[in-house]
Amino acid sequence: MSRRSRRLLTTVLGAFLLCCVSLPSWGQTPPTRTALRAARLFDGKSDRLLPDAVVLIEGTTIQAVGSGLSIPPGTRVIDLGDVTLLPGLIDAHSHLLLDVDPSNEGGGLLTPVAQSSTAERALLGAKLGREMLEAGVTTVRDVGNSGVNGDVALRNAIQRGWVQGPRISACTRALAPQGGQFPTLQPPAQPLIEQEYVTVSGVEEARRAVRQALVDGADCIKVIVDNGHNLLSLEELKVIVEEAHRMKRPVAAHTTTDASIRIAVQAGADSIEHGYSLPDDVLAPMVRKRIFLVPTDGPMDACDFFDTQTGDAERRRQMKERCRKNMARAQERLRRAVAAGVRIAAGSDMYTVMPGMTRGQASVKWFVAYTEAGLKPVDILRAATVNAAELLRMQDQVGSLTPDKRADLLAVEGDPLKDLQALMQVRFVMKDGQVVLDARPTRSP
Ligand SMILES: [Zn+2]
């Protein structure tokens, strides 16, 4: 057969299959029906636990959730016992393609960019993604620092079943003012900056950068509003938000100063990432515009890191003191935001090696740390489920245990509404109806 006629045959056959044949009828088996039983269930919305919970799942989807539901015959039953079932957790600020060793002083963000290819970092992402999943984080929004679209490659690999990991909302390369996020890079190494960020100068470049991100496969747009040397203009940010929203993508705005949070809020970004500096005048507009704060603070004991290092003891003591002061300030601004009615979506910003913990455990520990600022466990659970799902524009699929949602769940020991530390005791994880972790203690006969 000539190449031309083979191509013709393929095209004709393809068109025939598309229009006339319903492929799934070929030897398809009906989706598996599974029932999960657990002593308690948090559905993501209610502030009470449902006792004697049953979740009926068909294939990848939740069919019904209730107390003492009857289970249809022929259903596979997984009795989880004395645990609390929760919607799979969502980390709205992850960096799966980055694992910086903090004891490697001065290396920071630059080292992985300079030393690793995007391909290598995507494979690292596969490892860290698996760790997230096993800690019960079934969805993440990966907000940049993933090389040249390595987050999209990882997202697709997970979707295709090549590797197991959380569902990923990928932001591709972050948009940033000149310099990217390497403000101390001397001399400026533009090729390295461009591997990691898309720098924009002027509204047309800003518009083009969003459009390019969509071509690159972006589910969200991340923008570094300030970088220590430069600050995007309100006009640039407005165009970024307008273009992203026109294509139904949320905008995550990294801000650390009063000036940058003010323009991000004015431009109508969907979330403020970090927001370490939170002037009172942005609180009311954030509430009115339903802009989420994604605090990425972590626990106070993270400052003990400086005790574990070697070198000048006095300098380490000063660094630790500064860390604790910054942490106390961050907790104060989080209390102020919550008191004003600003909605919170959970984000870990975990990008470093945490000794003794997997990436997933460290990320969940960061969520639990919101309790140190006085947040109630139920509000933190909502921040890491329904709220984050809404921010990712995925609330129709994930974030709550209700009919028609994806069967993404985890089971933990104890009662997380009473003590959120329970989130660290993961016994079972399911994603898309597939069991990914079953660490129930084996019962004695
Ligand atoms: Zn970050």
UniProtKB/TrEMBL annotation:
Keywords: Coiled coil, Hydrolase, Signal
Origin: domain of life: Bacteria
Keyword Signal carried by entry: yes
InterPro entries: Amidohydro-rel, Metal-dep_hydrolase_composite, Metal_Hydrolase, Metallo-dep_Hydrolase, OTAase-like
Pfam family, one: Amidohydro_1
GO molecular function, one term: hydrolase activity, acting on carbon-nitrogen (but not peptide) bonds
Residue stretches making up the Amidohydrolase-related domain: 84-436
Transmembrane region(s): none
Range of residues in the leader sequence: 1-27
Coiled-coil region(s): 313-340
CDD domains reported for this sequence: Met_dep_hydrolase_A
PANTHER family for the chain: ALPHA-D-RIBOSE 1-METHYLPHOSPHONATE 5-TRIPHOSPHATE DIPHOSPHATASE (PTHR43135)
The protein's name: Amidohydrolase family protein
